[in-house]
Specification:
Shape: globular
Distance between the termini: 33 Å
Low-confidence stretches: none
Number of strands: 0
InterPro entries: DoxX, DoxX-like_oxidoreductase
Largest sheet: none
Number of domains: 1
Transmembrane segments: 49-69, 76-95, 107-127
Mean pLDDT: 96
Keywords: Cell membrane, Membrane, Transmembrane, Transmembrane helix
Strand content: under 5%
Family: Belongs to the DoxX family.
Helix content: over 70%
Membrane topology: Multi-pass membrane protein
């Protein structure tokens, strides 16, 4: 009989928590795209589709939906991680050295969360995992 320690019990839930991290991050991220493209949630910011912010909105919405479902997770997470790195250095960093002052803290966090998801995969609650099981 093996006795589980609190650490091993928590560690055994890590794959599901990876799925939760992916799902929650994707939900919040896709809202940035829906706000840019459809003004939902309501905003005054609606960039032209043929602008860098418009293209970013498309990537946020479509990439967020794919990550939410856990479909093509690794390549999508890789692209979105890179997009967030570019967004930080192009739009936030020129304003200030400090992310809390330049408004780029979310871009940095998304960049590294997506990089982690690229490396770790989608977790068990994903279409990618369901397709692998078939």
């Amino acid at each position: 009989m093996t006795t589980q320690t609190p650490d091993s019990r928590l560690a055994s839930r890590a794959p599901e928590m990876l799925s939760v991290l992916r799902i929650v991050s994707a939900l919040i991220f896709l809202l940035h795209g829906s706000q840019k493209l459809f003004a939902f949630p309501p905003t005054d910011q609606q960039p032209p589709l043929a602008s860098l912010m418009g293209v970013g909105g498309v990537l946020e919405l479509i990439g967020g939906l794919l990550l939410l479902a856990g479909l093509f997770t690794r390549p999508v997470a890789f692209v979105l991680s890179g997009m967030m790195a570019v967004a930080y250095w192009m739009f936030h960093a020129p304003g200030s050295l400090y992310p809390t002052l330049n408004g780029g803290d979310a871009a940095i966090l998304y960049c590294f969360v997506f990089l982690y998801i690229f490396v770790a995969g989608p977790g068990p609650w994903s279409l990618d995992a369901a397709l692998r099981r078939r």
